[in-house]
Amino acid sequence: MGTPHRAFGRWIVVFLLQWSFTWRSGIVEASHVVHRDLQSVSPSTIDANLRTGYHFQPPKNWINDPNGPLYYKGFYHLFYQYNPKGAVWGNIVWAHSISKDLINWIALEPAIYPTKPFDINGCWSGSATILSDGTPAILYTGIDPNQNQVQNIAFPKDLSDPYLREWVKPDYNPIIAPAVRVNASAFRDPTTAWLGPDKHWRVVVGSKWNKRGKAILYRSRDFKNWIKAKHPLHSMARTGMWECPDFYPVADEGRKIGLETSMHGRGIKHVLKVSLDLTRFEYYTIGSYDLQMDRYLPDTALADNSTGLRYDYGNFYASKTFYDAHKKRRILWGWANESDSTNADNAKGWAGIQAIPRTIWLDPSGRQLLQWPIEELEALRGKHVHYTHDKILKSGEYLEVKGIQNTAQADVEVEFYVSNLEKVEPFDYAFSTDAQALCKIKGADVKGGVGPFGLWVLASSKLEEKTAVFFRVFKAGDKNVVLMCQDPTSSSLSPDLYKPTFAGFVDVDIKKTGKISLRSLIDHSVVESFGENGKTCITSRVYPSLAVGSDAHLFVFNNGEEDIRVSNLKASEMMRPLMNGS
Ligand code: DQQ
Question: How confident is the model at residue 25, as a pLDDT?
Fold first, then answer.
């Protein structure tokens, strides 16, 4: 991401790079913006100013996709795409950290890095599978000497080591090479494998053919020899390259339990998520997995393209779930890239974080998934304030949340009661599938009927800087449409920052409930918000210049004509966990 200027510049770089690779080998396509001159420039200083306090981050350098999350012998493992030499994408290895609680992390040495012909030009994303005997196996994409993308396997060297420090890549790799009619430059990011009732393993690899996005399916009896199925698990026209696909079961009827990836049968729906290289957003569908046909069929009511449901309507990409056998839940990890410039990343000495892991399950309606920060996060809550009395905010009013000092590193929960919907604005159906465009013109400062109301976070004392997280209600026939936005347009006085407004609709009947809830995780340069108990989630990266550290303030505001009642506001300062030694 970047300013339009920067985005154009990046596009040119990507184009030239793709062109030059294609010209030389006829095959390779870059996935990330490449800055050859900076790839191996070690940061001279680490600017701690806007580093996050409780999000997953290494002490320095570039990170992107979460890889192969797993639970083994009492430890959670997170691997991730990491540049050991600089703060831009390049020299990618699988860095490795372990944790007892998904909050405090200890960095180990990289687990997988280029050593063999089958990955000599890169160790790209992949997933972990716990085999039937309990052995963890990693499937990942290697870039071979011809710049082809191939799928490799790695096993722990010592299964008695709960840290799983060393990984062995057997010489029989690659286990899956691009076959005829498979695009060797768009063939990557294997999923966690699942075992069918026929005792054959299945795995999906992301791909495209022309502009059709594909989840290519492979089967294996022994996890070593893999055969391509005649048809993909699923594909969709005009969606482009499917990066980091994820396919897993969820319990229907809204049961908040996670299911092991191989589970199927009654009471189970399936989810397919893909990360679209074309838009750099992800979308998912909920549907049925036809085991006879080995095909996934999304529910017909759901859009199966870039207008579809998103885990997160903001800066959240290349995500991956895993089944946590310890607590019987499914957990979602996602990468939140920087939105500042490459030069700024270089100067900071770091770039990229992982969003707080979220528990993910099916909404009782069956129409969408729900997400909530893992419960372990609450252990970091320190000093807090709880407004036990409701406050009425009249049109144009705002109120500072006082009683805690460090609102730059905080966890805030609040409920907004809406009693009168008479003044709601009419909904323009042209925006039905584009909440972001609607929010761009109806930002936090644009007065409305019911809303905008919400939080101003990372705000300076005089409100020159603030990031708005808010709701706005519209009328569409006899129904109401609720928009949730994260608007960083006033988040920083620093010039030339990319400040995208992000938005999604919230599936709530506000006439019936009379209220809507919001939780925001604020952490210096990131704001992760969860609307209506995790129905709509938005992550933004912001870079205040005044609202930094103890100079950051927190407000509730109402810019709509109708009064809003603010209830149950709780704000907690967040303590710092152990974070990879930083
Ligand atoms: N990042 C990896 C690829 C993947 C992309 C390379 C998604 O495997 O497709 O770092 O961000």
Answer: 32
**Taking CB atoms and a 6 Å cutoff, what residues make up the pocket around ligand 1?**
31-32, 64-65, 81, 92, 124-125, 141, 188-189, 243-244, 318
| Low-confidence spans in the chain with pLDDT less than 50 | 1-29
Residue where a domain terminates, one of 351, 373, 395: 373
Residue nearest (by alpha carbon) to ligand 1 atom 6: 124
Fill in the DSSP letter of residue 165. -
Q: Residue 511 Cα, ligand 1 centroid: separation in angstroms?
A: 43
Number of H helices, E strands in the chain: 4, 38
Cα of 38 from ligand 1 centre, angstroms: 19
Specify the amino acid at residue 483: L
Q: State which ligand 1 atom lies nearest to the alpha carbon of 317.
A: 11
User: What one-character-per-residue DSSP string does 464-497 give?
Assistant: SS-EEEEEEEEEETTEEEEEEEEE-TTS--STT-
Which residue among 340, 373, 406 closes a domain?
A: 373
Work out which ligand 1 atom sits closest to the CA atom of 81. Answer: 10
State the residue for tokens 């799983």: 164
Domain around 123: 17-373
Nearest to 191 by CA among 117, 137, 111: 137
Which protein residue's CA is at the shortest distance from atom 5 of ligand 1? 31
Specify the DSSP element, H or E, that contains 16.
helix 4-25
pLDDT at 43: 86
> What per-residue confidence (pLDDT) applies to 21?
34
Q: Kindly state whether residues 409 and 509 are assigned to the same domain.
A: yes
Average pLDDT, the chain: 94
Which of 574, 244, 528 lies closest to 358 in space, CA to CA?
A: 528
> Atom 9 (ligand 1): residue with closest C-alpha?
243
As a whole number of angstroms, the distance between CA 162 and CA 473 comes to: 50
CB–CB of 334/316 below 8 Å?
Answer: yes
* Ligand 1 pocket: which of 188, 278, 282 to mutate (most atoms within 8 A of CB): 188
Report yes or no on whether pTM surpasses 0.70.
yes
Structural domain includes residue 7: no
Ligand 1 atom nearest 241 alpha carbon: 9
Residues with a catalytic annotation lie at 65
In this prediction, residue 273 carries a pLDDT of 98
Q: Which atom of ligand 1 is nearest to the CA of 243?
A: 9
Mutational test site, ligand 1, from 148, 244, 333, max ligand atoms within 8 Å of CB:
244
Task: Judge contact between 425 and 560, C-beta under 8 A.
Answer: no
- CATH number (domain holding residue 69): 2.115.10.20
240 and 364 assigned to the same domain: yes
